[in-house]
Every structure is written in C-alpha cells, then in structure tokens.
Amino acid sequence: MTKKYNVGIIGYGWAATAHIAAINATTQGRVAAVWSSRPLDSAELSAKHGGTIKAYRELDAMLADPDIHVVDVTSYPSQHRDQAVAAAKAKKHVILEKPMANTPEEVRDIVAAAEANGVKGCVCFECRYSNQFQVTKALLDEGLLGKLHYGEVDYYHGIGPWYGQYRWNTGKKDGGSALLTAGCHALDALLMLMGNDVASVTSLSTKSASDIFKPYEYDTSSVTILHFKNGAIGKTAAIVDCLQPYYFHTHLVGSEGSLLDNKFHSMKLKADKSHWSGLSMKMLDSGDVSDHPYQAEFQAFFDALDRGEDMPLTSFKEAKKTFDVIFAADTSAAQGGTPVRLP
Ligand SMILES: NC(=O)c1ccc[n+]([C@@H]2O[C@H](COP(=O)([O-])OP(=O)(O)OC[C@H]3O[C@@H](n4cnc5c(N)ncnc54)[C@H](O)[C@@H]3O)[C@@H](O)[C@H]2O)c1
Fold this sequence. Notes:
Elements: E1 5-10, H1 14-24, E2 29-35, H2 42-49, E3 54-56, H3 59-64, E4 70-73, H4 80-89, E5 93-96, H5 104-117, E6 121-123, H6 131-141, E7 148-156, H7 166-169, H8 172-175, H9 178-194, E8 198-206, E9 221-228, E10 233-239, E11 247-254, E12 257-260, E13 263-266, E14 277-278, H10 294-307, H11 316-334, E15 340-341
Parallel strand pairs: 1-2, 1-4, 2-3, 4-5, 5-6, 7-10
Antiparallel strand pairs: 7-11, 8-9, 8-15, 9-10, 11-12, 12-13, 13-14
Helix pairs in contact: 1-10, 4-5, 5-11, 9-11
The protein binds nicotinamide-adenine-dinucleotide (NAD).
C-alpha cells in the first residue's frame, strides 16, 4: 500500500521498535528506512516490521534519499541536536524523542534549523495524547474544576540496572538530570493542564542513599515549584531513584473542585464532596514504550503535515517551552534552590 510519508529512523533501540509499529499503524506514514551504528539487514528488518525497509550504514545517504520525507530521531540524547539539525537541513520533517536535547543551546539550534528549513517537528511528549491526560484536559475545558490555582504532576519511576536505558542514563552526558531524562513528561503534563506561562521556578535536588543508584553522575530526585504568571502555583517531583511501582501522580485544585489521578469532585455536579467521583480512563501506569500512545501522537503529526501546519500539543515550539522551564529548574537546583525567572 502506498502511503504519503516515508519515515527514516535514526537509531534502532527500544524506543525505535515502538515507533516503527506506531508509525506503520497511522493512515499516512510508513517506516521505509533505518540508520543505525550497528550493521542491520534490510530483508530481516522488512520481515520483522512489515513493508520494505532499507537499512542504511551512512546517515548522510539516508538523509540524501529524496523518498524519505520524515526523519525520526531515537538515538542517545547527546546525539539529538546534530542529527535533528542535519535532518532539517536535508528538508525532512522531524520526529524527535525526548529530551529534545540536554542543553538550552542545543534545543535552540534544533528549533532554529526547523524554522530556517521550513520543516515541522514532533517531540515525543506522547503523554499529552494519552487517554488519561486527554480526559483530564476535557474535564478542565468543561469547567468542572473552575479556575485552577494549584496543580501537581509527579513522576516516580525507578530507573535501575533492571532497565535497558540504565547503561547510558547514569551518565550526565546522556541522562542530563532527573527532569531531563524522565520527569520531563510530568512537568510537560503540568504545563499542558495549567498553561505554560511560567513566571519563575524554584527547584531542589538530591539522590538516594541506595547502592543501586550509586553509578548516577547527577541528582536523581528533584522537586520543582512553579509560579505561573496568572498567580497559580504548581509542583513537579521527578524521582528516578525510587523503589516502588511506576506512578504518574496528578492532583489539580480549582475554584469548583479537585482531581486526583482518576478521581474528581466538582461542585457543578452537586455530588457528595466527602467522596470522590470516578473517571473511567486508561491510566499512564507503565514506563514500557509499547504502552505509550505514540500512534495517536504520530497520527496528529501526519494530519498536521497534510494541513501544512504545526501539530497540536507537541510541536517543536510548544515542547521548547517545557524545556525552557526544565533548564530554568535545573539552574535553580544547581544554585541550591534560588528562584529563576523565565522571560
Ligand atoms: N518518550 C518516551 O516515553 C521514551 C521512552 C523510552 C525512550 N525514550 C527516548 O528515546 C531515546 C532512545 O532511548 P531507548 O530507550 O530506545 O534507548 P536504547 O538504549 O534502546 O537505544 C538508544 C540508542 O542506542 C542504540 N543502541 C542500542 N543498543 C545498541 C547496541 N547494542 N550497539 C549500538 N547501539 C545501540 C540505539 O540504536 C539508539 O540509537 C532516548 O532519547 C530516550 O530518552 C523516550
């Protein structure tokens, strides 16, 4: 079957395998090529994932292929900037795994290269497309919680030796910080729900005393307090060194009610305030990429490409706002918790 957007993947690790299935399941996209530092066999790739997939050994050759329309960067975070910029210069639209990159300069370079070359971007903040946050956002948009004045979205996910990424995530160069490597999903969700007009952030960080997390070169727990320009306040804990089940915690408090994960109370519904009401929705309860809503996000990206527009929710420009807050938070934590203002 002919599809409109042929995608070339950079990197063939864990995220890439989930991306391939998700891209192929969209209406307009199919994976046509993979570039990896490891030698891969085109016939094997095609048999495994379906369709015809060409394995490239040279990245420049894949980027020069006029039949590739979109490049999907799923490599180590320290490689994201150079590869995303090269893809944009080759006039390919770009799907980019989180973190966009681990420094503000690199993120700026990526956004500038896309703009200069007239290509669109999609950052894998796929949690925005999750059923949990789509339903939560719909509840807010219906006005059931009124005006939010407090919100917290926290990320608890122990990334120890049992986890594939541990081998590179422990290093500062690729792991970055508790927020950059994992907590970014929670901070991003908080900004989706409360708006991203942040006036200032204050952050503190530390690490576990457990030997399991000793190899980490950076603080693996951080807590960030946000002051929004509209006066609201928020909080995100990013905890990579916990020993517990994966937990994406959400608590929102507004003038008409509150939401706690999949429970809520709204004065507008006149229900009993001493008990929570329930929301039936699929929760984000796993770090496994096969459970992540990539397909909905990539479908929205291809639909936006069809319209010639930036995609909703996770465009480069929208995601950069989240990374601006993250870099400000990490600066605050490095200074022992002094507030850092955002422009
Ligand atoms: N959005 C999300 O929820 C989510 C989830 C998982 C990963 N990610 C991101 O995706 C990116 C890649 O993460 P990953 O989990 O796929 O990591 P991974 O370790 O599986 O792969 C990372 C890179 O290493 C390469 N690689 C893997 N094994 C290799 C080997 N034996 N020899 C040479 N190269 C090898 C891969 O091709 C890829 O380029 C990172 O930026 C990560 O933060 C995001």
